[in-house]
């Protein structure tokens, strides 16, 4: 009798664990669906923002991640030194890939990938009126460059100088860009 009870108890535990795993899997699928929907909404916002702007704005907006991920003497924003470069989980899109391919083909120089491991820039975020109701043809770009908290003072200064050079490059194209370096652990309130 005790053996039967133990077997029933084991079976009950297995069924319960199986039920929990099914619930966990369903929750995982639900979260993945929500993430895909959020990505689709974000892409729609970016597409609308770009459609409302001229070619220079589109070029600047599209290339900023590439110019912060790579560091090369032929690219806007280049300066000597060990400038922090590389955005976590960044993969160039078609336009950005085309820019990099042109750099390699026309100028014979390949933009080096950032070093492997933990990259210094955790994300780029377009703040302000971009893709909002308040966006107009004269809107500027406010870009948060979120970086790892382990960057030292010199590295932050180099990254800020690179951003200043990118602001000047964008201004030469008629696009106003402002960069704000944000420590990932110190978001403003």
Report on the architecture of this protein.
The protein is mainly alpha-helical and 189 residues long. The protein folds into two domains: 1-51; 54-183, no CATH class. Helix content is 52%, strand content 11%. The protein has four helices and three strands, in the order αααββαβ. The protein is elongated, with a radius of gyration of 23 Å. 18% of the residues are buried.
> How much strand?
5-15%
Largest sheet: 3 strands, mixed
Low-confidence region ranges: none
The first-to-last residue Cα distance is 64 Å
By DSSP, the count of extended strands is 3
Order of helices and strands: HHHEEHE
Instruction: Give the total of domains.
Output: 2
Please tell me what the overall shape is.
Answer: elongated
- Binned, the helix content reads 40-55%
* Arrangement of strands in the largest sheet: 1-2-3
InterPro entries: Adenylate_cyclase_1 (IPR000274), Adenylate_cyclase_1_N (IPR024685)
GO biological process, one term: cAMP biosynthetic process
Pfam families: Adenyl_cycl_N
Keywords: Lyase
Strand-helix topology:
Elements: H1 2-51, H2 55-69, H3 94-107, E1 121-127, E2 141-147, H4 153-172, E3 177-183
Parallel strand pairs: 2-3
Antiparallel strand pairs: 1-2
């Amino acid at each position: 009798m005790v053996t039967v009870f133990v077997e029933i108890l084991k079976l009950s535990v297995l069924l319960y664990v199986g039920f929990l795993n099914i619930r966990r899997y369903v929750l995982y699928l639900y979260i993945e669906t929500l993430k895909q929907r959020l990505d689709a909404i974000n892409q729609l916002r970016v597409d609308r923002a770009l459609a409302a702007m001229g070619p220079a704005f589109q070029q600047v907006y599209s290339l900023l991640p590439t110019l912060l991920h790579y560091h090369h003497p032929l690219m806007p924003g280049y300066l000597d030194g060990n400038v922090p470069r590389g955005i976590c989980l960044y993969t160039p899109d078609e336009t950005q890939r085309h820019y990099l391919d042109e750099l390699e083909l026309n100028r014979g120089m390949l933009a080096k990938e950032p070093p492997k491991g933990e990259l210094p820039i955790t994300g780029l975020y377009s703040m302000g009126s971009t893709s909002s109701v308040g966006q107009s043809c004269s809107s500027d770009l406010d870009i948060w460059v979120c970086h790892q908290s382990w960057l030292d003072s010199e590295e932050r200064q180099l990254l800020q100088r690179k951003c200043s050079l990118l602001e000047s490059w964008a201004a030469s194209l008629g696009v106003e860009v402002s960069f704000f370096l944000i420590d990932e652990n110190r978001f403003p309130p």
